[in-house]
Design goal:
Largest sheet of chain B: 6 strands, mixed
Radius of gyration of chain A: 13 Å
Helix content of chain B: under 10%
Largest interface: A-B, 28 and 25 residues
Oligomer: heterodimer
Mean pLDDT of chain B: 91
Mean pLDDT of chain A: 95
Distance between the termini of chain B: 40 Å
Order of helices and strands of chain A: EEEEEEEEEEE
Number of helices of chain A: 0
C-alpha cells in the first residue's frame, strides 16, 4: 500500500463553521506533512509531524490546528476560516522526518470558505 | 529568504520531442532534490530524486541533472507524450525536515 488517503475530497464551509480534514497512510512512515496550495502556485508547507509530535509550524494562523492521533493518522482542524483560506490542502508522508526521502502525497481536499 | 525557483513558467513541446525543465535553487545547504508532476485536480506525484553527492540520475524516460556550482537542477523528459502534460515542480530539502517547492513549470504537449 503506497497511498496517502485524504478525506473529504471537497469541502465547503462557512466562516463560523468547525470542520476537520483527515489524512491516513499505512506505509509505516514516521513523518507527515500538511501543505496548502493555491491555484497556479506551488504547495506551501504548513506543518510537519515527526514521530507523532509537531516538529515544524510554518507560522500558520491558529485557526488551523493540526493533530496526529497515531502514526497512521493526521488531522487538520479548521475553525473561523476566512475566504482567503480557500485552497487545496495536501497531506504527505515520508519514511523519516529528515526530509531527505521521497514524500508521498494524497490527492488533496479542495476547501472553499464562504 | 532562500527559495527554489524555475526559469520558465510554461513550456510547449511537440509530441515525440525531448523536454527540458529547469530549476534554480538558492539554499546551498540543500542536499536532496525531488521532481514532482502534478496533474489537474491531483496531488503531486514523485518522478525522480537526486542527492547532492550525484550529478545525474536516470529513470524511465526521465533524467535529472544537478549542477551544484551554479545551483541548478533540470529535468529532461525523452520522447514527450501527451500524458506528460502537467505542472512540474522541483522541491528541495534545505534541512530541518522541510521539503520546499519551487514555482513550477506547466508543460503542454501538442499532438
Amino acid at each position: 500500500d503506497t497511498e496517502v488517503t485524504q478525506t473529504p475530497k471537497h469541502l465547503v464551509m462557512g466562516m463560523t463553521n468547525k470542520k476537520s480534514l483527515k489524512c491516513e497512510q499505512h506505509m509505516g512512515h514516521r513523518a507527515m506533512y500538511w501543505y496548502k496550495q493555491k491555484a497556479k502556485k506551488p504547495p506551501e508547507l504548513m506543518f510537519v509531524y515527526s514521530y507523532e509530535k509537531l516538529s515544524i509550524n510554518e507560522s500558520v494562523p491558529s485557526r488551523f490546528s493540526p493533530e496526529c492521533p497515531n502514526s497512521s493518522l493526521l488531522n487538520l482542524h479548521l475553525h473561523a476560516l476566512q475566504p482567503e483560506d480557500s485552497a487545496l490542502y495536501l497531506c504527505a508522508s515520508s519514511i523519516t522526518p529528515a526530509g531527505n526521502t521521497e514524500a508521498f502525497f494524497g490527492q488533496g481536499t479542495r476547501l472553499t470558505v464562504v | 529568504g532562500e527559495s527554489v525557483g524555475l526559469h520558465l513558467p510554461t513550456l510547449s513541446v511537440q509530441e515525440g520531442d525531448n523536454s527540458i525543465i529547469n530549476c534554480a535553487y538558492s539554499n546551498s545547504a540543500s542536499d536532496y532534490f525531488i521532481w514532482y508532476k502534478q496533474e489537474s485536480g491531483k496531488g503531486p506525484q514523485f518522478i525522480i530524486d537526486i542527492r547532492s553527492n550525484m550529478d545525474k540520475r536516470q529513470g524511465q524516460r526521465v533524467t535529472v541533472l544537478l549542477n551544484k556550482t551554479v545551483k541548478h537542477l533540470s529535468l529532461q523528459i525523452a520522447a514527450t507524450q501527451p500524458g506528460d502534460s502537467a505542472v512540474y515542480f522541483c522541491a528541495e530539502n534545505p534541512g530541518g525536515g522541510k521539503l520546499i517547492f519551487g514555482q513550477g513549470t506547466e508543460l503542454s504537449v501538442k499532438p
